[in-house]
């Protein structure tokens, strides 16, 4: 349909420049004939094959008032034109990304997109609506002063997943159905297996979109453009279906693979834990020392801090990769029952281990910093002559995970003191003061080793939902909460030297973990370091 056929005026609006055209209509900048208010007007001929304006109109009222949801100012049918008048918004993420000369988006921006888009879906889903067409072109930034907010647009494929008649979730079905969504980011379940879309699929699309932004050249099945034949579409479907999360996310912070796997494990009618994933991505941002908020700032401020991942498909494994994989496998191999530290008091400690344990093998340093699986952080500090020692330039998570794995083999207090000392030294040289989940895993392992290695212990780090409640409570008395944390850490630091046995130390480690877990930002303060230093010293003294 030629642009020349569009009317000059629709409803109370004069049409201006065309902002974009989709499958069944066009969007114009428009202004109100009386008030001059500038808006976006989505125009569709009433006879189009796919009358999405008609559907969209039905969803807007339920979405009004939500952050990042465009306001619907007017809608109707005039003559042969169906129109929606909504807020004029800014550029789509797709255009922003394409206009940029870089092949990947910076991690900070991607983490902001993750948090904001998950929030938008949480809002939509809470209103009983699925988006069903999550893609970069349907996420747009606001105009000043809302340029840091990402808006969701295009509800033409949306659907209510709560049946208004029964108030129940729509049923799953195995019946053959037409595909609704987009080629790039629609979930494997919906796109490749013909499943009925539900909340989990909106979220999986977000996961794929985030991974796409961080992958040079994008997800492999997006590289040949829109498939033009059935055969090309079938090939795309096969490629998407067969792509394993670990391959798609190789070299990315583990949160992205975890998120994709989480979405794929959700049951059809299950409510996703939006808060958990917003927290995961926020905490990753804090760990990377980005600002602790989700404001989308474009272009990214300098110096831009990026993670670069290896483009897929991965190159053939080199000899050193092979060796590294083998060694890594050996670290995880449990060939004998490991001796345990057990519950002991001062008089009992120091006995030699009853049985030789598998000696932990240090993961060899990567030969090249940009070797597969290693994140290279390019920032101002990259060429800094005061670089951290090479061992600390392993991804933080990997290093801490290795430490946690070594704890069960520390079968006497001297060995345990050595691991704790290494833990403290590592945390001290790390740029971030946040205790990550891998850091908590080290604490868990130390606690277990001190208390009773033979029983399962509840992880010290609680689920994010509890934590969110906690911070809400703390929001009423943030000063008190901070003071309580400082007092507790101060007391632990002071008392660790007086502990009489390993059980007491175990209790102190548990208290320590709980205080850090419940604090805002899970920061390791000076007293926290003091406690860990004291713990290492005490263990050595008790050997
Ligand atoms: N409110 C808005 N303000 C500014 N630009 C907009 C607005 N809504 C949409 N656009 C622009 O128009 C493009 C198409 O919009 P939209 O996706 O809503 O239309 P559509 O006809 O459903 O498109 P498609 O068929 O591609 O899904 C968007 O990618 C965006 O660039």
UniProtKB/TrEMBL annotation:
Pfam families: Pkinase (PF00069). Keywords: ATP-binding, Nucleotide-binding. The keyword ATP-binding applies. CDD domains: STKc_CK1 (cd14016). The keyword Nucleotide-binding applies. ATP binds at residue 42. Coiled coil: none annotated. Residues 13-282 form the Protein kinase domain. This is Protein kinase domain-containing protein. It comes from Somion occarium.
